[in-house]
Amino acid sequence: MANVSIRKYKTSDYETARFLFAEGTKEHLPAACMYTLTTPRFYFITFVAFTSVFMGTGSYVLALTSLVALLAAGWYGLYSEFHGLASRFLRKDMLDIEKSYMMSENACFWVAEIDGKVVGTVGAQPSTDADDELLLLHISVARDYRQQRIGTKLCQTVIDFARQRGFNAVCLETANIQHAAINLYESVGFKKSRVAIRPSLVHQYTSFTVIDYRYNIKS
C-alpha cells in the first residue's frame, strides 16, 4: 500500500481538487441509470406509456418509438442532474476554495497525496442549521487510488478537526445509489439520521433517496 499523506489545501492544488470533485460527482451517472431501470415506478411508467400509445394508434412502431423517447428523456434528465450538480458547486464554494474553506477558523479543506500527486479531497464547513455541527463536504478519491483507505483517512481528518474545534457532530449527505460511499461512512462510524426524496422531478421519477449521516463526537 502506498504511503498516503493528508495535508491542508494549497493554491497549487486548485485545478486538481476541482477535477477530482467534478469527476467524482459525474461518475455516479451509470449507477443512477442502472438503479432507475430496477425500480417499480420505472416499469409502471414505461408500461403506461407503451400501452397508451399503442391503444391510441394501434402501431407497435409508434409505441416502441415513444418508449425509446421516454428512455432518452430519462437519461438526459439524469445526465443533467449529475453534471448540473457538479457545475453548481464548481461555481459556488469550489470556485474559490481558499476563501470558502481556508480563511475561517472553523472551516478547512484537505487533500490526500501520494508521491507528490493529489489523489483525494475533502472539505469541512460549519452547518447553517446547527451551531454544534460540522459538515463533511466534497470527499472524493481518484478512481485508480481507491481501496487504499484514503477515504477513511479523509473522514477521520474531518472528525479530528471537528473535535479540536469543539463541535458535537460531523454531518454529511449522500444518495442511496452511492454504495461505496455508504459503506465508507458506516465503517468509520457514521449513523443514518434521515432518509428523504427531494421534490425535484428527477428524484420523484427515479425514487432516488437522499441519506443524511451523523457522527457524534464523544466529549
TrEMBL record:
Transmembrane domains' residue ranges: 42-62, 68-90
InterPro entries: Acyl_CoA_acyltransferase, GNAT_dom, NAT_camello-type
Top-rank taxon: Eukaryota
Alphabetical list of CDD domains matching this protein: NAT_SF
Keyword Transmembrane among UniProt keywords: yes
UniProt protein name: N-acetyltransferase 8 gene 6
Molecular-function annotations in GO: N-acetyltransferase activity
The keyword Transferase belongs to this UniProt entry's keyword annotation: yes
UniProt KW keywords: Membrane, Transferase, Transmembrane, Transmembrane helix
Signal peptide: none
Gene3D superfamilies xrefs: 3.40.630.30
Location of the N-acetyltransferase domain: 62-211
